[in-house]
């Protein structure tokens, strides 16, 4: 098994652990569409886990979500920059499978970076918008 397929196999195995309903439908897709939707969903779950972390201050959530927004503003994702960001998330709480997903975001990034360019370009704007919107919502909550 190649490193590429092994990395995606991990992502695919995580999907039903962090999504009960969507995983059923995503499993019906095939090829690059399947891979891109799995990875897009996992990124959304990563962002959501950060936003829902009860142990994080609103300021920490905003900063992390803004960093994710900035990270997805570039293509491909910078794995070193992502690892630095994930390294700052000590103390992240929540569902153990979701926390494991966040801790292993580098695996998701590796598979994401190997998607064909057209699929990454289709996903990126939505991920940027989601991270931005979540940060804005946290800013409103801070007020």
Textual characterization of the structure:
- By secondary structure, the chain is mainly alpha-helical.
- It has a single domain (3-142), classed as Orthogonal Bundle (Farnesyl Diphosphate Synthase), CATH 1.10.600.10.
- It contains eight helices and no strands.
- It has helices at 3-18, 21-26, 31-52, 58-71, 79-87, 96-103, 105-113, 117-142.
- The mean pLDDT is 94.
Give a short overview:
The protein is mostly helical.
Overview features:
single chain; Farnesyl Diphosphate Synthase; globular; mainly alpha; 0% strand; 143 residues
How does the SSE layout of this entry go?
Blueprint: H1 3-18, H2 21-26, H3 31-52, H4 58-71, H5 79-87, H6 96-103, H7 105-113, H8 117-142
Helix pairs in contact: 1-3, 1-7, 3-6, 3-7, 3-8, 4-8, 5-7
State the major sheet: none
Mean pLDDT: 94
CATH C-level category:
Mainly Alpha
The percentage helix is over 70%
Q: Based on DSSP secondary structure assignment, what is the total number of beta strands? A: 0
Instruction: Return the string of H and E elements.
Output: HHHHHHHH
Number of helical elements: 8
Strand content: under 5%
- How many structural units, i.e. domains? 1
CATH superfamily: Farnesyl Diphosphate Synthase
The secondary structure category is: mainly alpha
Which residues sit in consecutive blocks of at least 5 with pLDDT less than 50? none
The CATH topology corresponds to Farnesyl Diphosphate Synthase
CATH architecture annotation name:
Orthogonal Bundle
């Amino acid at each position: 098994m190649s490193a590429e397929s092994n990395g995606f196999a991990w992502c695919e195995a995580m999907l039903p652990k962090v999504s009960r309903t969507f995983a059923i439908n995503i499993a019906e897709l095939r090829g690059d569409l399947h891979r891109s939707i799995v990875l897009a969903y996992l990124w959304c779950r990563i962002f959501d886990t950060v936003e829902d972390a009860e142990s994080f201050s609103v300021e920490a959530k905003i900063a992390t979500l803004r960093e994710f927004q900035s990270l997805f503003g570039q293509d491909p994702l910078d794995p070193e920059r992502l690892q630095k960001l994930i390294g700052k998330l000590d103390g992240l709480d929540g569902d153990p499978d979701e926390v494991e997903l966040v801790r292993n975001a580098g695996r998701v990034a590796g598979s994401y970076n190997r998607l064909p360019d057209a699929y990454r370009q289709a996903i990126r704007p939505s991920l940027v918008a989601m991270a931005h919107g979540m940060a804005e919502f946290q800013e409103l909550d801070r007020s």
